[in-house]
Amino acid sequence: MKEIITTDFEKEVLQAGKVVLDFYSNECPPCEALAPKFESLAELYGEDIKFLKVFRQQNRDLAERLGVYSSPTLIFFDKGHEVGIRLTGGIKRSEIMFNLNSMLPAEKADAIKSRIKPYTTPYDVAIIGSGPGGLTAGLYLCQARVNTVLIDTGLPGGYVSLTHQISNYPGFIDPQPGYMLSHNMSEQTKKCGSVFKVAVDVTRVDLQKKEIIIDEYETLQARKIIIATGTSPNYLNIPGESEFKGKGLSYCATCDAKYYADKEVIVIGGGNSAVEEAEFITKFATRVTMVHQFEKFQANKQAQEKLLANPRVEVLFRHEPRSFERRGDKMVVAVENLQDHTTRELVTDGIFIFVGMKPNIDLFGGMLELDQWGYLKTDEDMRTNLPDVYAVGDVRSKKYRQITTAIADGTIAAINITRELDN
């Protein structure tokens, strides 16, 4: 693997054959997550494809010329022309391999894949999920010198990293950006010594054998497992939702609100997430229309009062969406008035959906005991019904789901596990 600068680009990339170019930055957690994958793939594919790195901050002209505005970004070239799918953010090994294999004859790609040797790495504890609960458990365990690995299909931080501001986390007078709070948590746990395997594909989880296979070839063997996989947004499952997801429909204000500067949007929902994210969206949009099925919001009173006092916000209580359409550059949502059952259309530039969450438990089959809503049942020490398997955070059955309750869960599980391993 070789690092180049702007003046090398013509010779090393445009005049070369098959090349993959990594634009990276300093103090960039996704770049750190990518680095070991990039290096290991360079060893596999390096005879056929040239692996190059570019330090983005010191080669801004080149980055801007190529339309690179985030780190890391992987660009694939063949004889000076960009090919494949450009990758950025939390890049998975499988995504890189898909591009690399598409640049080679099928028989060559198969031959390289056959050289990948499966192996097993032992740990005391494997934590599946790296939100606040998982990160806290990892912090306590590594401070107790328990050999711990955190595994996540995304990047550390969980849903917190997508929340624009957090105003009720103890110790901070002013609201904190969610991405910064989650970054500090993950860096603290990483500095302590926990191993991170993030932006990976989880191929299989065997809770009885305590094995997690990632990226199809590495088996993580643990004595105990903590499930901290959190939740994902619920979908409305109405006509047009799947077709226009990411094309006018969004589930993340932090990710997409900036695209609606000086435009109008609709927010569907009335809980804490809907109300707080709608307030954030008003920093960009000129008008936000809330659509909520009940006669009042379920969010905390302070957030409600702040939102309702905002002149950019209108609210339709006792209304539900029935379908989504796109007409030209506008989105159209049909909403039903739940009082008289009449339906009308609302025309807008974009739609944000915040209607609750569901537990991420698909990896675990049907062996774990669940409550009536599908969350994992535990005892007060965070043990599930399976021996040596714990659950913490929002994936666990409990009355309140907050960052602070997830952190408490992680603390309790880690202390109990440490004591059990010491005995």
Secondary structure elements and pairings:
Layout (H helix, E strand, L loop, with lengths): L1 E3 L4 H6 L3 E7 L4 H17 L4 E6 L4 H6 L7 E6 L2 E8 L4 H10 L3 H9 L4 E10 L3 H12 L4 E5 L25 H15 L2 E4 L3 E5 L4 E4 L3 E10 L3 E3 L7 H4 L4 E2 L2 H4 L7 E5 L3 H10 L5 E5 L9 H8 L4 E4 L2 E9 L2 E8 L5 E6 L1 E4 L3 E3 L29 E3 L11 H20 L1
Parallel strand pairs: 1-3, 2-3, 6-7, 6-11, 7-8, 11-22, 13-20, 14-15, 14-20, 15-16
Antiparallel strand pairs: 2-4, 4-5, 9-10, 10-11, 12-21, 17-18, 18-19
Helix pairs in contact: 2-4, 6-7, 6-12, 10-11
Structure summary:
This protein is an alpha/beta fold and 423 residues long.
Helical residue percent band: 25-40%
Number of helices: 12
Cα radius of gyration in angstroms: 24 Å
Helix vs. strand class: alpha/beta
CATH architecture assignment name of the largest domain:
3-Layer(bba) Sandwich
Q: Please outline the major beta sheet.
A: 7 strands, mixed
The shape, in one word, is globular
Overall pLDDT level: 94
Unreliable runs, pLDDT <50, ≥5 residues? Answer: none
Q: Whole-Å distance between the termini? A: 47 Å
Number of strands: 22
CATH topology of the largest domain: FAD/NAD(P)-binding domain
Strand content: 25-35%
CATH class of the largest domain: Alpha Beta
- In the residues, how many domains can be counted? 3
CATH superfamily assignment of the largest domain? FAD/NAD(P)-binding domain
